Amino acid sequence: DAKTTQPNSMESNEEEPVHLPCNHSTISGTDYIHWYRQLPSQGPEYVIHGLTSNVNNRMASLAIAEDRKSSTLILHRATLRDAAVYYCILTILRDDKIIFGKGTRLHILP
Amino acid sequence: NAGVTQTPKFRILKIGQSMTLQCTQDMNHNYMYWYRQDPGMGLKLIYYSVGAGITDKGEVPNGYNVSRSTTEDFPLRLELAAPSQTSVYFCASGEGRAGSEAFFGQGTRLTVV
């Protein structure tokens, strides 16, 4: 199974941009890159996903490396409410499962 | 907008007791999933289903059973509760296409004493 590698934790100051990295060196051509986040005491929620091109939505941006072996989730202006665990996941066309890794715990400093 | 609904929200079980965690979704999703999350850890997939009548094991299926008789419901059964099953359980549903998102319930916090 294709796996992802993320830093265990990161810190950022409030109202500054945050770049959360993810390595997925064994990604296949049809694997999508998904990001979910889990706020304290809540279930995970979808943030963004992409295949090859960079993606933007109201929550974040996803920058995908040209070789697709890494990606970066960008929160343009972090708030205290963005403090959460962020999971980078590959969803695989030939596999029905969604497997979570350990994620990155993001701390936002006021 | 109900989405994915899990009941109960909290439960305390004694060792050896049985219980069923309920999960229902109103989005007509074919794919449904059960996860457990131990304190400070990530989510582990217990079982999943790609449609009514079809279930399959995930990463940590031992001690659990599931059934999928309808598209909407995906109950998780614990037959003989053990302290190691103390965890928060999350149910999720999705369209199942590789580029689609999954929707999660708010979780059931289970303590086995």
Radius of gyration of chain B: 13 Å
- Structural class label of chain A: mainly beta
Radius of gyration of chain A from the CA trace? Answer: 13 Å
Q: How much helical structure, as a percent, in the residues of chain A? A: under 10%
Helical stretch tally of chain A = 0
Major sheet size, sense and barrel closure of chain A? 5 strands, mixed
Number of strands of chain A: 9
Structural class category of chain B: mainly beta
| Quaternary structure of the protein | heterodimer
The count of β-strands of chain B is 11
Q: Reading side by side through the largest sheet of chain A, how are the strands ordered?
A: 1-9-8-3-4
Strand content of chain B: over 45%
State the low-pLDDT regions of chain B, or none: none
β-strand amount of chain A: over 45%
Q: What proportion of the residues of chain B is helical, as a percent range?
A: under 10%
> Which sequence of SSEs, written as H and E, runs from N to C of chain A?
EEEEEEEEE
Morphology call of chain A = globular
Distance between the termini of chain A: 39 Å
**What is the typical, i.e. mean, pLDDT of chain A?**
93
Folded structure, characterized:
The complex is a heterodimer of chains A (110) and B (113). With 110 residues, chain A is an all-beta fold. Chain A has strands at residues 9-13, 18-23, 32-38, 45-50, 55-56, 61-64, 70-75, 84-91, 104-109. In chain A, strands 1-9-8-3-4 form a five-stranded mixed sheet, with no helix packed on it. Chain B is mainly β and 113 residues long. Chain B is built from no helices and eleven strands. In chain B, the strands form two sheets. In chain B, strands 2, 4, 5, 6, 9, 10 and 11 form a seven-stranded mixed sheet that branches. A four-stranded antiparallel sheet of chain B has the order 1-3-8-7, with no helix packed on it. In chain B, a hairpin with a 7-residue loop joins β9 (87-94) and β10 (102-104). At the A-B interface, β3, β4 and β8 of A face β4, β5, β9 and β10 of B.
